[in-house]
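If you are new to this repository, start here. Below is one unmodified record pulled from the training split, so you can see the exact layout before writing a loader.
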Amino acid sequence: MNASTLSDPKPLGDFISVNNPIPFYPPGASGTDGPPKVAPPHLTDGMRYFEQFCPVAYKEFDPEHPNLIRNRDAINTVLSYQFSTKGLLLTGPTNKGKTRVAWQLLKRLYADDGVECRWYHSMDFFSKLQEFVSYGRDDAREWVSAVANRRVVFIDDLGQEANLKSREEWAEGWFFRFLDWRLERKLPLIITTNLTAKDIANKQGDIRSDPLLRRMLDVCDVVKFA
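And here is the target side for that same chain:
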């Protein structure tokens, strides 16, 4: 990969080599239940992309910072996460370290474990999704399926996205399909949100009564930040 390639970043922070994209391998490929290891050149590219795409504020992380002591258990849970069929749903108020620790997890997964990662801010994810509707034609399937094939997907700040009123149900339907594909392919999803379960559902009652939230719980284990 040459310098000019890296100086023109791919949209939405793809942590893989532009010239040598990593293909999707189903769980169990090559006789193992774990993710395929990435060749060292890809790791180098991955770290360079991390440095380029990770917001400056999140590159450094001190889990012993006084403001984070209250959430030490939650932080340790995230940092000790190992690639598996389920990911993590980090919930809680803003400024508690959710996004910061999620970035450190992605850095470790790619640099140390050789696991391909892709990240989106929720507004970018849904904005990109809406680009695939033109003159009433819905061309989102190929893009959603391609993203769903990534080994690890990180969606930051879910619940802050804004969709056109006329497309809310459409966008939610494709996000539900995206979750379905992650579940079917046994691939994890990392999500951060400032909203509580009831906030996301926008109603009182059991979180599992909402189909979308129920599917999110099928692909993620909840980690609560206070």
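Two things worth knowing about this chain: Residues 1-33, 203-208 have pLDDT under 50 and may be disordered. The chain has one domain: 3-15+35-224.
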